[in-house]
Amino acid sequence: MRRIYLDHNATTPADPRVVAAMLPFLGEIYGNASSIHSFGQQARAAVEQARESVARLIAARPAEIVFTSGGTEADNLAILGVVRASRAERKHVITSQIEHHAVLNACQAIETESVEVTYLPVSADGVADPAAVRSALRPHTVLISVMLANNELGTIQPVSEIAKIAAEAGVAFHTDAVQAACKLPLDVSRLGVDLLSLSGHKIYAPKGVGALYVRSGTRLAPIAFGGHHERDRRPGTENVPGIVALGRAAQLALDRLATEPARIAALRDRFERELLARISDVRVNGYLAPRVANTSNVSFRFIEGESLVIALDLKGVSCSTGAACSSGAIEPSHVLTAIGLPPQDARASLRFSFGHANTEADVDAALDALESAVRHLRELSPLASGS
Ligand SMILES: *Cc1c(COP(=O)(O)O)cnc(C)c1O
């Protein structure tokens, strides 16, 4: 059976060119980038070249890039690092209710350090309101963190407007751009952000590597302690193969930006158009908001999302629910709850996220699989009877 992967927001396959670039660093080029001999110099040169490529992707300077173990660590370093660098007596942070758990749970962690956090609601289409950010500002606000593209809905947040408000107030501004990289052109100056998170495995590099952009002059305390790596901002021997991979992936992302988002948008639009025409009682979440090209979040009324994911997987189509399975119970997604979906509809929602390898044939095959799986599950569903 041909397998169709529609879960690129969970992770992407490493591009063969990325794998080829990193392979020598898993083999013969094994030096520690901090060693002064030639083995070390070779590794150092590769790390610095990768830093330039990542910087170019977001129009930053190489010295402003800190390599991390991924998006989660980049988010944690931004939030904990800015908050702990502030000497203020009282501290307040503003974020949104639809952030990734890497941001939300880092914010919860600092609440235990007596930092106040405001979790702003979003519109029914999944977009944060800059005016609400402005109203939430307090004299002791030290950080605003609002993501660029939401991982469940694909909705694009008004980051540059929020950045202006942050700059006027003299507050540091972080954005999680993990789901925006390789989908939108990124320019840290145009966005106006002070900190920006990236993750390798969301942009066709392997898992376990990421980066945090830190605008020069932004005060950041380290959150781990060790050697003087990454200009004292992130200790630990550099993951040279991973960093090389991230650099290559950043180059490829930049090269593809001219054509790939438009191609993928056409696939996603075909998918949604046909879906709405062929299946009743569906709703595309975030439909009216600006969205990145690849993401489609759909509620299929009267259906349990998990059952539909499994039914589709049996038909060779891989997608996901937005729901996080914690302690065996299926919690409705915090993002879908935040846009006002009742728990029943939130649990009936699936995320389809398209990527480079997907074709029109994939979309058509996924639609066929969906149509029959939805019909079958609704026939069995007590929720659907009488509708
Ligand atoms: C995947 C993801 C992360 C976490 O990145 P990891 O590299 O998996 O730790 C953070 N934020 C968003 C929006 C994501 O989609």
What does this structure look like?
With 387 residues, the chain is α/β, with parallel strands linked by helices. Helices cover 40% and strands 15% of the residues. It has 14 helices and 15 strands. The protein has helices at 16-22, 38-57, 71-85, 101-111, 130-136, 159-169, 188-191, 229-232, 240-256, 260-278, 305-314, 334-338, 343-346, 360-380, and strands at residues 4-5, 65-68, 92-96, 116-120, 141-145, 172-176, 195-199, 210-214, 282-285, 295-300, 317-318, 320-321, 325-326, 329-330, 349-353. The strands form 4 sheets. Strands 2-8-7-6-5-3-4 form a 7-stranded mixed β-sheet, with helices on both faces. A 4-stranded antiparallel β-sheet has the order 9-10-15-12, with helices on one face. The mean pLDDT is 96. Bound molecules: pyridoxal-5'-phosphate. Pyridoxal-5'-phosphate is lined by residues 70-72, 75, 100, 102, 147, 151, 176, 178-179, 199, 201-202, 210.
Q: Based on the coordinates given, report the CATH architecture of the largest domain.
A: 3-Layer(aba) Sandwich
Could you state the order of secondary-structure elements as H and E?
EHHEHEHEHEHEHEEHHHEEHEEEEHHEH
**Count of distinct strands:** 15
Approximate helicity band: 40-55%
Q: Give the total of domains.
A: 2
Residue-averaged pLDDT? 96
- Low-pLDDT windows of residues: none
| Strand order of the biggest β-sheet | 2-8-7-6-5-3-4
- Tell me the major beta sheet: 7 strands, mixed
User: Could you tell me how far the N terminus lies from the C terminus, measured between alpha carbons in angstroms?
Assistant: 35 Å
What's the CATH class label of the largest domain? Alpha Beta
Number of helices, where a helix is a run of at least 4 consecutive DSSP H or I residues: 14
